[in-house]
């Protein structure tokens, strides 16, 4: 069985690949990336590294030839993802792929205000209409964002500022997302036509997250709730662009487009992300890492 991994040079793609290589030979992997040189080490192990660009549909069909199962890791191109993902699904079917595993987002439904959530919903619909077997992994908000970005910001300013109110989310470790994806790919028939909520073990407000940051650092860090308009003004002052541009990354914030982030916070505040499952354990046999666990991994 040949497994195709899209976005294989990205962080999640690399983590999934590393997990798979603990169980199967590299020769069973077809790794798709816009930058094949970035996967030279995997190629040296025997993986078939192929150039593919979701923005160039003509590159996709040939890149997927010979594959059986595709892990479709969602792209970063806010505003273009539905078209890109739909093109990938069509190319996969034409190339003979039989099963697509898709990395979606938690709390997906038509009413979500989140721009990315709306795009994930449209992709899920396209996948379910495709006639292919599918598995949808609805990954919650990454817990890793806290020690990497929120904790340092909190230590610098003494506070975390957001517009999520009392909205709840069950942050999930990116490592657990990778473990779940790899487990599904290794046993696709068991997970055919399933939809999983990939979350951490605890529902938290951002005030709770600030408290955990304080606990880990020994420094007081408060959560300051503001309106969505006030948070948007903060992003504007930081120079974050409101609309997505391909490859954008702000040197000061490592942020996406602010319109996307604000609508994501709207969705959290309105409780679209108030979902906590044990699906990581169901799929992998291992308990999901908690937010406290993830902070400790990065700060020990």
Number of strands: 9
Strand content: 5-15%
The poorly predicted ranges are none
The string of secondary-structure elements, in order, is EHEHEHEHEHEHEHEHEHHHH
Largest sheet: 7 strands, parallel
Structural class, by secondary structure, is alpha/beta
Strand arrangement in the largest pleated sheet: 3-2-1-4-5-6-8
- Name the helicity range: 40-55%
Overall spatial form: globular
From the alpha carbons, calculate the radius of gyration and give it in angstroms: 19 Å
- SS field, number of helical segments: 12
| Amino- and carboxy-terminal Cα gap | 40 Å
- Average pLDDT confidence is 94
Structural features, described:
With 300 residues, this protein is an alpha/beta fold. The protein has twelve helices and nine strands. The protein has helices at residues 11-20, 40-45, 60-64, 81-95, 115-129, 145-157, 174-186, 206-217, 228-238, 258-269, 279-284, 291-299; strands spanning 3-5, 29-33, 48-51, 69-73, 99-105, 133-139, 159-162, 194-198, 222-225. The strands form two sheets. It has a seven-stranded parallel beta sheet, sandwiched between helices. The radius of gyration is 19 Å and the shape is globular. It starts with a strand and ends with a helix.
């Amino acid at each position: 069985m040949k497994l195709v991994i899209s976005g294989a040079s990205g962080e999640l793609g690399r983590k999934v690949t590393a997990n798979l290589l603990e169980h199967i030979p590299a020769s069973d992997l077809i790794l798709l990336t816009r930058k094949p040189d970035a996967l030279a080490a995997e190629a040296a192990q025997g993986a078939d590294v192929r150039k593919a660009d979701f923005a160039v549909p003509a590159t996709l069909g040939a890149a997927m030839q010979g594959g059986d199962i595709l892990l479709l890791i969602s792209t970063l191109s806010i505003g273009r993802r539905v078209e890109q993902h739909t093109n990938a699904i069509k190319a996969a079917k034409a190339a003979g792929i039989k099963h697509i595993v898709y990395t979606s987002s938690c709390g997906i439904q038509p009413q979500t205000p989140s721009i990315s959530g709306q795009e994930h919903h449209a992709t899920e619909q396209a996948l379910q209409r495709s006639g292919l077997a599918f598995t949808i992994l609805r990954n919650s908000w990454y817990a890793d964002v806290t020690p990497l970005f929120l904790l340092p910001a909190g230590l610098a300013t003494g506070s975390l500022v957001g517009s999520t109110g009392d909205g709840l989310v069950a942050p999930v470790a990116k490592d657990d997302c990778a473990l779940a994806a790899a487990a599904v790919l290794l046993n696709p028939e068991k997970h055919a036509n399933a939809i999983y909520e990939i979350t951490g073990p605890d529902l938290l407000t951002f005030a709770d997250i600030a408290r955990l940051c304080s606990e880990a650092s020994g420094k007081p860090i408060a959560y300051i709730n503001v309106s969505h308009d006030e948070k948007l003004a903060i992003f504007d002052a930081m120079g974050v662009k409101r609309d997505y541009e391909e490859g954008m990354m702000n040197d000061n914030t490592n942020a996406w487009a602010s319109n996307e982030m604000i609508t994501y916070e709207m969705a959290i505040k309105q409780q679209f992300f108030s979902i906590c499952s044990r699906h990581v354990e169901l799929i992998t046999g291992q308990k999901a890492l908690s937010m406290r666990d993830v902070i400790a991994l990065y700060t020990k």
